[in-house]
Amino acid sequence: MVSFFVVLLSVLLVSVCLFIIVLVLMQRPGENGGFGTSFDGSALESAFGGDAGSILAKITIGCVISFFAIATLLSLAYVCCTQKSTHADNLSAIAKACRQISP
């Protein structure tokens, strides 16, 4: 169950990363021919209104916050997953040692 959770969070983290990259590239319509120029600047204004940069900035901030939250959950799930296997290995090593000591 934990491994499914780790895989799901990993896929979600990669998806959020790609979405953040697209959002950041869309925010620079006039400079150096970024991804925003393909939307011609006016398309962004018609889609998001006059303050398209402000809306895109707020969406980017939300995505970055979710990126860090997902990364934290992923690291906690990974630590939980590795501690269980280490715990089981320690218990089996203790059981082997006890069998060797007792006649």
Can you walk me through this structure?
The structure is a single chain. This protein has 103 residues and is an all-alpha fold. It has one domain. Helix content is 80%, strand content 0%. The chain has three helices and no strands. The radius of gyration is 24 Å and the shape is rod-shaped.
Q: What topology does this entry show?
A:
Elements: H1 2-26, H2 42-48, H3 52-101
Helix pairs in contact: 1-3
Keywords, please?
mainly alpha; 3 helices; 103 residues
Q: Into which percentage range does the β-strand content fall? A: under 5%
User: Over the alpha carbons, how many angstroms does the gyration radius reach?
Assistant: 24 Å
**Mean model confidence by pLDDT:** 74
What general form does the structure show? rod-shaped
- Secondary-structure element string: HHH
Taken together, the total number of domains comes to 1
Distance between the termini: 40 Å
Helix fraction bin: over 70%
| Parts with pLDDT < 50 across at least 5 consecutive residues | none
Biggest sheet character: none
The tally of helices reads 3
Question: Total number of β-strand segments?
Answer: 0
Please identify the structural class as seen in this structure: mainly alpha
